[in-house]
Structure formats: structure tokens, C-alpha cells
Amino acid sequence: MYDYADFDNHFVRNRTAQFRKQVERRVSGALTEDEFKPLRLMNGVYLQLHAYMLRVAIPYGTLDPNQMRQLAYLAEKFDKGYGHFTTRQNIQYNWPHLTDIPDMLDALADVRMHAIQTSGNTIRNVTADHFAGAAADEIEDPRPTAELIRQWSTDHPEFQFLPRKFKLAVTGSKEDRAVTKAHDVGIRIVERDGEVGYEIIVGGGLGRTPIIGQVLNDFLPREDLLPYLEAIVSVYNTLGRRDNKYKARIKITTMENGIEKIRDLVDEKFAQLRPQFSGVDQEHFARIKASFPNPELKSADTGAYDAAYATDPGFRSFADTNLSAHRDAEHAIVTISLKAHGDTPGDATAEQMRVMADLAERYGYDDIRISHEQNVILPHVHKGDLPAVYATLRAYGLATANAGLISDIIACPGMDYCALATARAIPVAQNIAERFDELKLEHDIGPIKLKISGCINACGHHHLGHIGILGLDRAGVENYQITLGGDGGADTVIGKRAGPGFSYDQIVPAIERILLAYLDLRDGPDETFLDAFRRLGEAPFKAALYPEDKSNAA
Amino acid sequence: MPRPFTPKIVTANDLVTGDVIYLAQDGSWVGEMCMAALLDEEDAANARLFEAETQPHIAVGPYLADAKAGANGPEPTHFREAFRAKGPSNRLHGKQERQQEVQAHV
């Protein structure tokens, strides 16, 4: 993976030293909170409901074992022994003291990590397909492109005070696991006549106004990427609204001005900027690319896998659910679920982090990924090693066979932690997972995406859930709205609100009714919830959700 | 017609720990809502808020929150303040952790 150059090291160390002084001045009273707040936000420090929260960037979700061990160390030394992996492939610590945060940032810098631009109206952590470099359907590893963008966008002097935050995602596969159409700018690596370039999508986003991104350029030559992105962000920086926070994202700019106007302005700006890029960026890109070599995959006997699959039902279930096809037939991609039934989605203890680091070192070519679905991925594991990996995961509560199932829920921190939340999300996820585990219906229901947000900002991506749940405050009481039919895959569909919301006590039974209806209505076990929903429309599911309406009508 | 004034407490977060704090009758900051001053009059509430705002070295983001009189002192009327007074519902962390420790020592 990318190793810091002296420049990067110096930059990160410098920033940490600056922040240490800023904290000292805040505590001494030399800085007011109004003065200090933008400085702390530039370094990923939020003040949440019960405590400060530090959000650490995990660029394109990639970690090596030592970085994961350092995250474990931070969890133990400065927090309460765990960390929370987020829907933007980051990790959050929920309980640090302000005065400890400079030490945390120093410890992160020791392993080439930081919290820069994880908050504020800047270009945020660039996300990428969590199966990058391993997926069978990949045109190219998206991470070198993501790293190039990270370096270009970090501390970019023109883009430190954008109208609003700005999120980019990169995918190298047709099956879009990076949800590129729900980003301010989505980048898809595409191939045309043997040449690799980029499809650029602009103006997508969730939040209170969910909008699917539109194609701004269907094939951008590789060498034009940075000047083109610079043109987009520059156009947004001048055109984006600053008068209304809720209309400030580029999705609104695009909607209000039209994609044609945006394209014309970007093309005009691009023509100005292009000559300023001499090609140094492409030389640098070549160096970045060389720092993401494919691991030298071993070839060995896979008999241990076959034997375990034939004899161990637990392993078989894990293999069927949590493994994905690797480009090399002897290897598999392992999804380690951070969604044990009843636990908090995305949380991992320090011990679990160390176990995953050790496994990556021993069996996984030193490669670890964080997915936006709040799981951990070992992207390259030889099939012959899978029984050993499974046994270790199992011993540490990490072998839950539920990847892609009803209990593999995305949930934002919600009102248990977040100062912006309007309702809780985590306990709803816990209760749903426990209920379906109790019913033993999870594997029968099969693939489904359930996503929960604790406020309209939609960090839990509820619009993209096959079933989405949005927690709101209705007259001082938690209330949960259900959306149906969303999908974050290659087509990207925003789910539709099913009807009136449900109370905290009624939301789990409501979800249960939808899924029992699905089991009755489906063509057979091969028809997924989403397929059945698309075939039948919302009516039968709404009827199951609101049985009293039916009786009233009768 | 203006809305009738409902009783309030002054609350904020501690500058160093981030912990939820409340302004007590004697002007000190306390960690438990039941020890906060319950302010029945609007002018008094605003004066107390102003007092809190002059202490940025202790209290971050002070504001007035609705509360009601309970058996042991002020109690929350909204679930957000109830969570702030207790801690998260998924883990026994925050104030509830310390409250339990206190009970264990009684």
C-alpha cells in the first residue's frame, strides 16, 4: 500500500503539533469555542452528545496490520476499549478527552494515519470499493486513483472552505460496491476500445434531498482526471449556495442549474486548468500505482477447505454467506461481520482488532479493508487457510455468518452518540437482528439490505436500503419511517416512504410483517426481497405493514 | 400570544472531558441533572444562561433545556435530555456507568 513520503510525514506531524498548541490555547482560555471549533473540526474532532468524538480517516478503507493494531491501542489507551467503523470507511472513537487527542493524533501519525478533512466543508475521505484489487469483476484497482485524489485534495488551498462538505468515491468494478451515484462526485473506472479511463458522475447524495448522480462525462482520459476534478470543485466552489445550508451541496447546485450548464462551466474551467497540469501528476500516479502491487498469491492444496465444508455446518454456513469470489480461484474474499446478533453494528473491541490484524498478517497478505457496510474485509485469503481463519474468528465473536442478510444492518450512531440525531438507530438494529435470529428466518429470507439512519442526514444510507428506516422526533417521541425498494447497487434507486411511521416499540414488529409477507409472496427461495418487491410493487408490502387500513377499507 | 414559559435547566458539555454538565443553584457545575437549578422564570433562566456563557473555560455550548420537578430534583421532559443525563443505550458507558459505581459503593 501507499507509504508516506517525507513530505506526507512532515505535513501530518506539523498539523498534529499545531493542533496540540490549539488545544492548549483553548484550555487556557486564549481561544473561544467559536474560534476553536473550526480548528478542531479540521482535525476530525466533534463534540457529541456525551463526549468528544475523534473521526480517523481510513483512506479508501485500506489498512495494514500495524495500523489496525494502532487503532486497537488508541481504543484501549484513550477510549473505552473499542472503536466504531463508519459508513464512510472511517473509525470513530466515542469517548476521548480533548486534552488526549493530540497524543492520539501523534500515535496515528506513527502509522501514517490522521484525522485531517474527516469533517468540515472540505473534500472528505475518498472511499472506494472494499473488494478493490481482489474482486473477480474488476477492470482496475481503484485505490491508486483514490490515493492520487487524496493527495491532490488534502490541504488543497482552494478547497478548504467549500459551500459544504464534498465526498468522492471510486470503483473499478461494474458491480458498484462504492455507491458512486450517491456521492458529490462518483468515479467509475471504465474501459473503451482497450483504453482505461473514467466515467464521472456528479451531483448524487442522500440526506434530506436524496438525488441520484448524473453522468457528467462518460469517458474521461486518465491523464485528465485531476484538472477535470479541479474544474468540477472549482465550479461548485463559486456556484454552490452559501445562503442556505440545506441547499449547499453540489446535488442542489446541479439540480438548480441543470447538468448541461454544469458541464459547460466545467469544460470551460477545464480548458483553463488543463495546461497547468504538466504531466507531473501522471508521473506521480505511476509511482502510486507501483505502491499497490498485487500480492504474490500462493498456490497450494485447497483440500482443507473442502473437508471443512463437507463436515462442519458452521463453517459451511460462514463460507456460503461471508465469502465472495476472488479473481484467483484458489483464493476468497472474507467478510468479517461486525454485526454479531445484538451487538452494535460496526463496533470492534481492541482485542478483535488485534485478532483481525494477526489474521491479515498470517493468512491475508497484510491487507485489511473496512467496508461502508461497517464490516471488515480480508481481501485475499487462500481457501486452504479458511478453516483456520474461521476457527480464530469464531473464538473472538467474529464469525457471524450474516454478511448481506437481514442482521447485517448499516446503522448510524443515532441518538446514542450523535448530537445531530433525532432518534436512536443502534438499538433498533440490535432488536431487529436479535428478533430474526430468534425466529431462525435469516437464511431463509436471504440477501437483503436493511439500513437505518437516526436523522434526515442519512449517514445510515436508509434511502438505499431495500428496507430503510429513518428515525425522527415526532412531538417529543421517537418515530420510525420505513422506506421500501431502495438499492445502492449499480443502478442505484432511492426507496419510497411506505406510509406513517412507527413507534420505537412497533418498528421491529413492522419489519417482521414486511418480511413474513415477502416469504409468503415470493416465487421461490431464489427470488430475493428486492426482486419480489420489483415484481409485485409496494401494495402487498404496505398491506402487511398497515393491516388496520385493510380492515378499515373492508 | 407568546408561549407560556416552561421550567428550564442550564446544561452544557465539559470543555476537557466533553461530559454533560448542569448549572447548580450555587453557580457550580455538576454532573447530575437532579442537582441542577430548576429555573421557573424566564428572566432568571436567561440570566443563568448568560452566567454560563461567561465560563467558556468550563462549559461548551450552554443552552436552556426543558425540565420538570421530580422527587429528587429536575428531570428531563424530552428523550434527548434523558439520553444526555444517562448515557448511550447500547453500552453501559457515560453517566450510567458512574451512577452504577456510586450505587455499588453505597
How would you explain this protein's 3D organization?
Chain B: Pfam families: DUF2849. The complex is a heterodimer of chains A (554) and B (106). Chain A folds into 4 domains: 104 residues, Sulfite Reductase Hemoprotein, domain 2; 149 residues, 2-Layer Sandwich (Sulfite Reductase Hemoprotein, domain 1), CATH 3.30.413; 93 residues, Sulfite Reductase Hemoprotein, domain 2 (Alpha-Beta Complex); 144 residues, Sulfite Reductase Hemoprotein, domain 1 (2-Layer Sandwich), CATH 3.30.413. Helix content of chain A is 38%, strand content 17%. In chain A, strands 16, 17, 18, 19, 20 and 21 form a 6-stranded mixed β-sheet that branches. A 5-stranded antiparallel β-sheet of chain A has the order 1-2-5-4-13. In chain A, strands 3-14-15-12-11 form a 5-stranded antiparallel β-sheet. In chain A, strand 11 and strand 12 form a beta hairpin. The mean pLDDT of chain A is 96. By secondary structure, chain B is of the alpha+beta class. Chain B has one domain. In chain B, a hairpin with a 5-residue loop joins strand 2 and strand 3. The longest helix of chain B has 12 residues. Chain B is globular. Chain B starts with 7 loop residues before the first strand and ends with a helix. The model of chain B has no long low-confidence stretch (mean pLDDT 94). The chains are: A alpha+beta (554), B alpha+beta (106). Chains A and B meet through helix 1 and helix 14 of A and helix 2 of B.
Task: Report a brief summary of the structure.
By secondary structure, chain A is an alpha+beta fold. In chain A, 38% of the residues lie in helices and 17% in strands. Chain A has 4 domains: 6-109, Sulfite Reductase Hemoprotein, domain 2, CATH 3.90.480; 142-290, Sulfite Reductase Hemoprotein, domain 1 (2-Layer Sandwich), CATH 3.30.413.10; 303-395, Sulfite Reductase Hemoprotein, domain 2, CATH 3.90.480; 410-553, Sulfite Reductase Hemoprotein, domain 1 (2-Layer Sandwich).
